[in-house]
């Protein structure tokens, strides 16, 4: 099942089931978003699909009419979940370790983490720092080298199981990260640092998350200036292992999003510029598309 959140002027934020080009609005006064569906499934010890399928459809929309630029005067998609927290995993693909080690003065620290038993896990965002499909991702004012990081993300439900998947752009200020590894939180966490969407695909629709094509394109002035791809089969760690480390002595709320690391390392020449558009396409999930702007100018 594919779930979306969307905005209808004068009505507000809605949650729906997407099938083909159809979106069925299943919002109720108690269930106003995907987070409530996931919480209800956790507390009733059932699946997200079952809770969503049991809600009454109160309106229908075409997906095309919702998949538009974020503008409060018109219907548009919202991020597919308002996560209590987003956490990130790092250096889960060999290419990520190699390129980060090449580009930093601290040779070998990324290779160490790639090979170590303990994964890199960092705090990434809260919902207020995230954006949905077609909304702006941001370059912080003190960064000249901010990169898109195309990643698959999963949502943690009851008993720490995976209840769904979405596409994530872990937008990162690489120049700040490279200056000193202790600056990592500032390279990762800022307004508009994390894009999620366009939909939340429930776990039942993705029986094998380790065999999906992940593609990324950067478009500048209507021209594709970068395109790359990777299969999720190249990831070194299993998601259960990542969740286990995340949750060790660390209370994690139902609905927390975990983004699993990038295997597409975009060369420095394609650092983001205002006006660029980043597209990340993950097989069986969807295409997340975001324009870029610089903060504080
Ligand atoms: O260690 C820095 C961040 C790594 C990361 O975000 C990734 O590998 O995707
Ligand atoms: Mg990343």
Summarize the structure.
This protein is of the alpha+beta class and 297 residues long.
Order of helices and strands: EEEHHEHEEHHEEEEEEEHHEEEHEEE
Ions, cofactors and other ligands present here are: 2,5-dioxopentanoic acid, magnesium ion
Largest sheet: 12 strands, mixed
Strand content: 35-45%
Query: What is the CATH superfamily of the largest domain?
Result: Fumarylacetoacetase-like, C-terminal domain
CATH architecture of the largest domain: Alpha-Beta Complex
Q: Could you give the count of β-strands?
A: 19
Describe the structure.
The protein is an alpha+beta fold. The protein folds into two domains: 2-77; 86-294, Fumarylacetoacetate hydrolase, domain 2. It has helices at 34-43, 48-53, 63-66, 94-103, 109-115, 174-179, 184-188, 239-247, and strands at 2-8, 12-19, 22-25, 59-62, 76-78, 86-90, 120-125, 130-131, 137-139, 146-147, 150-156, 162-170, 172-173, 194-202, 213-220, 223-231, 257-259, 277-282, 286-294. A hairpin with a 2-residue loop joins β15 and β16. The longest helix has 10 residues, at 34-43. The chain starts with a strand and ends with a strand. Bound molecules: 2,5-dioxopentanoic acid (DO4) and magnesium ion (MG). 2,5-dioxopentanoic acid binds next to β6.
């Amino acid at each position: 099942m594919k779930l979306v959140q969307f905005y209808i002027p004068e009505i507000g934020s809605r949650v729906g089931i997407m099938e083909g080009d159809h979106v069925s609005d299943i919002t109720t006064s108690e269930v106003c978003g995907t987070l409530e569906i996931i919480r209800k499934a956790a507390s009733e010890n059932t699946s997200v699909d079952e809770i969503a399928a049991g809600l009454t459809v109160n309106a229908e929309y075409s997906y095309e009419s919702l998949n538009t630029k974020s503008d409060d005067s018109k219907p548009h998609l919202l991020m597919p979940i308002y996560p209590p927290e987003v956490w990130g995993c790092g250096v889960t693909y060999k290419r990520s370790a190699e390129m980060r080690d090449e580009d930093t003065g601290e040779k070998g620290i990324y290779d160490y983490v790639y090979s170590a038993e303990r994964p890199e896990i960092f705090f990434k965002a809260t919902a207020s720092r995230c954006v949905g499909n077609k909304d702006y991702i941001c370059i912080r004012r003190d960064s000249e080298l901010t990169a898109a990081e195309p990643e698959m993300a999963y949502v943690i439900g009851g008993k720490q199981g995976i209840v769904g998947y979405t596409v994530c752009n872990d937008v990162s200020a690489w120049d700040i990260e490279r200056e000193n590894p202790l600056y990592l939180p500032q390279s990762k966490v800022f307004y508009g640092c994390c894009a999620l969407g366009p939909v939340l695909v429930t776990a039942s629709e993705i029986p094998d998350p380790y065999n999906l094509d992940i593609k990324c394109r950067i478009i500048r002035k209507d021209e594709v200036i970068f395109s790359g791809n990777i299969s999720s089969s190249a990831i070194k760690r299993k998601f259960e292992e990542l969740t286990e480390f995340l949750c060790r002595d660390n209370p994690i709320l139902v609905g927390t999003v975990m983004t699993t690391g990038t295997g597409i390392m975009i060369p420095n020449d394609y650092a983001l510029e205002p006006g660029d558009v980043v597209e990340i396409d993950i097989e069986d999930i969807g295409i997340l598309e975001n324009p870029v702007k610089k903060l504080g100018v």
